[in-house]
Specification:
The chain has eleven helices and seven strands. The protein has about 250 residues and is α/β, with parallel strands linked by helices. It is globular.
Amino acid sequence: MNNPNPMHTRIVSFVRREGRLTASQRRALTTLLPHFGVDVASPIDARPNAQTDAQVDAQAGETSTALDLDAVFGRRAPRVLEIGFGNGASLAQMAAAAPAQDFLGIEVHRPGVGHLLLEIERHGLTNVRVICADAIDTLERHLPPACLDRVQLFFPDPWPKTRHRKRRILQAPFVTLVHDRLKPGGIFHMATDWAPYAEQMLAVMEAAPGFRNHAGPGRYAERPTYRPETRFEHRGLRLGHGVWDLLYVRG
């Protein structure tokens, strides 16, 4: 698959914190993931320490396979991708409220994947699929251009220390990648509760070619009704903490 903007200086915006799998999450990973999961190779996870990003890109480019999302979901419908869905509760809620849309969630932490699978089972959802892999790798190698109607990036790790800011996922090369995977008119929706990250998001997106700020130049958006307010977010708002939504439309 042709990649218009390979991210050779690859952002690794997460640290694997496996945590403890509950018995029910372990069961979900064993019995539900084969049905609702989408298996993709992840060269970052398998990379030997001595291997460079360029070597990984060259090797993975030979085996990259674009997913047929119509086959994955068994139908043709508007497609929403959420990157880093956490425990998946809000993603399941959105999918339950919009059965005519398909939702693809990417998360690297297995307890969160297990929790989402249990939510899928509990609500009887058929319009959700799960990828447990690196999001950038998946976007680059396994999602074809113009295949998504909305991309969601909610409360990504803000990496607040100055020396760690280079690990923030919201950077210009990533935005270019998202733009390529969105359909014309598609939405890139971000949200954060960390003010300095909100400012960086706004600056990066305002400078990004091919995107229009849905709320108007230089402005944050109101939370759309389709994005559920999380318990953590509700508690923070009661304490006076801010939450910033940004919605950008692909031209």
